[in-house]
Amino acid sequence: MWSNKEKIWWRIKAMFSDRRIMIRFEIIDENTKNLEEIKQLYFDAFPFEERIPFFIMVLVGNDRGVEFLSIYDDDKWLGFIHTLVGDELSYIFYFAIENSLRQSGYGSKILREYKKMHPRLSLAIEPVEEESDNFKQRKKRLDFYRKNGFETLDTRVVEMGVEFELMGAKGMEIKERDYRKLVKKFFDSFEQKKVLSVKEMRDADSYTIANFVDSKELMYRAGEAIFYVGDWNIGDKVLVVAGSGNNAGDGYVVADLLNTEEIDVEILLIKDKFSEDGQYYFNICKQNGIKCNVLDESMDYSVLLEKFNSYDYILDCIYGTGFSGKVKEPVYSLIKAINDSNASVVSADINSGMNGDTGESDICVNSDITVSIGFLKKGLITNEASKHIGELINMDIGIVIEDK
């Protein structure tokens, strides 16, 4: 397996008709020149319910049991392939050809050469069922892979809530435990286990922004991670309840992603006040027509509760990890109404009202899921915090701790 500092190029020559094709694979990392083009193809090729955050594909690649590769014919960019590589099995997670080059025969040529490097290559497709909405597309995909030496293995698996059918090279047998081990290793690799204090986390944020990642990009990654973890679907109604700090900015990113995927979303502001980066993403939400309201401080608990009961999900972005002390009105009644509502609750980074170092609170949001960003905070893993958190998930977004 390669280190992420190395560039390994394969030049594989094959004669097709009168033309010599040179297929070249190049590692994708944060320095790849056409990274935005690759990201756009990823978004075009895969529906949101099948996607993981793109930054995770870049972060968790080429040194953690993954090959994330750009594909070229000499200097012509063709697309990308993202493969989980194990001792017993290699599994194509994503494979996409640039839109204008589909139906050109490149897909078959790439797979033919790629299988030479990974003989025990497998993949998964949506089951071909006549009642499915995209039956013709599924059938076409099945025919393509059969033509390229793959066969179905009568094994169905679920990835990110979507059912797929495994395929492997002809004559190949796959033990389901090998597949599950490979996928688990990949997903486990982007959940950080390190625990920091609030100050240590703040210092790591500052160090990362000063040396590696722009603050707006870091905020986008946080929002994308929260969006990915949430179990929202088209038809759901989501309310983002936002304070005035960077925690709210993460929520604006989520709101815009939900809106892009045509999921009904609204924003409720505690105050018409923003951090610099939060303002940037709030403006995008406004430009894209997302409904926004400012909390009426005279609204009592019963009215708030009735309002919150009309949503399927509430995203809690009121206070961040730096909050300490007691929650005051009108936020106290707001949190109480969130807790008493029927909505599923997702907290961004920490449950609003909770002390990030101790997990204590006089009142805090009770979440179904809390999506901790970067590193776990000490307060989140205390017994006191566990009373308010249904499931705790930590997401690595590329925050770096300074070596001292």
UniProtKB/TrEMBL annotation:
<dbReference type="GO" id="GO:0000166">
    <property type="term" value="F:nucleotide binding"/>
</dbReference>
<feature type="binding site">
    <location>
        <position position="316"/>
    </location>
    <ligand>
        <name>K(+)</name>
    </ligand>
</feature>
<dbReference type="Pfam" id="PF03853">
    <property type="entry name" value="YjeF_N"/>
</dbReference>
<protein>
    <recommendedName>
        <fullName>NAD(P)H-hydrate epimerase</fullName>
        <ecNumber>5.1.99.6</ecNumber>
    </recommendedName>
</protein>
<feature type="binding site">
    <location>
        <position position="349"/>
    </location>
    <ligand>
        <name>(6S)-NADPHX</name>
    </ligand>
</feature>
<keyword id="KW-0521">NADP</keyword>
<dbReference type="InterPro" id="IPR004443">
    <property type="entry name" value="YjeF_N_dom"/>
</dbReference>
<keyword id="KW-0630">Potassium</keyword>
<keyword id="KW-0547">Nucleotide-binding</keyword>
<comment type="function">
    <text>Catalyzes the epimerization of the S- and R-forms of NAD(P)HX, a damaged form of NAD(P)H that is a result of enzymatic or heat-dependent hydration. This is a prerequisite for the S-specific NAD(P)H-hydrate dehydratase to allow the repair of both epimers of NAD(P)HX.</text>
</comment>
<dbReference type="GO" id="GO:0052856">
    <property type="term" value="F:NAD(P)HX epimerase activity"/>
</dbReference>
<feature type="domain" description="N-acetyltransferase">
    <location>
        <begin position="25"/>
        <end position="165"/>
    </location>
</feature>
<feature type="domain" description="YjeF N-terminal">
    <location>
        <begin position="201"/>
        <end position="404"/>
    </location>
</feature>
<feature type="binding site">
    <location>
        <position position="352"/>
    </location>
    <ligand>
        <name>K(+)</name>
    </ligand>
</feature>
<feature type="binding site">
    <location>
        <position position="247"/>
    </location>
    <ligand>
        <name>K(+)</name>
    </ligand>
</feature>
<dbReference type="InterPro" id="IPR036652">
    <property type="entry name" value="YjeF_N_dom_sf"/>
</dbReference>
<dbReference type="GO" id="GO:0016747">
    <property type="term" value="F:acyltransferase activity, transferring groups other than amino-acyl groups"/>
</dbReference>
<dbReference type="InterPro" id="IPR016181">
    <property type="entry name" value="Acyl_CoA_acyltransferase"/>
</dbReference>
<keyword id="KW-0413">Isomerase</keyword>
<dbReference type="GO" id="GO:0046872">
    <property type="term" value="F:metal ion binding"/>
</dbReference>
<comment type="similarity">
    <text>Belongs to the NnrE/AIBP family.</text>
</comment>
<keyword id="KW-0479">Metal-binding</keyword>
<dbReference type="InterPro" id="IPR000182">
    <property type="entry name" value="GNAT_dom"/>
</dbReference>
<keyword id="KW-0520">NAD</keyword>
<feature type="binding site">
    <location>
        <begin position="320"/>
        <end position="326"/>
    </location>
    <ligand>
        <name>(6S)-NADPHX</name>
    </ligand>
</feature>
<dbReference type="Pfam" id="PF13508">
    <property type="entry name" value="Acetyltransf_7"/>
</dbReference>
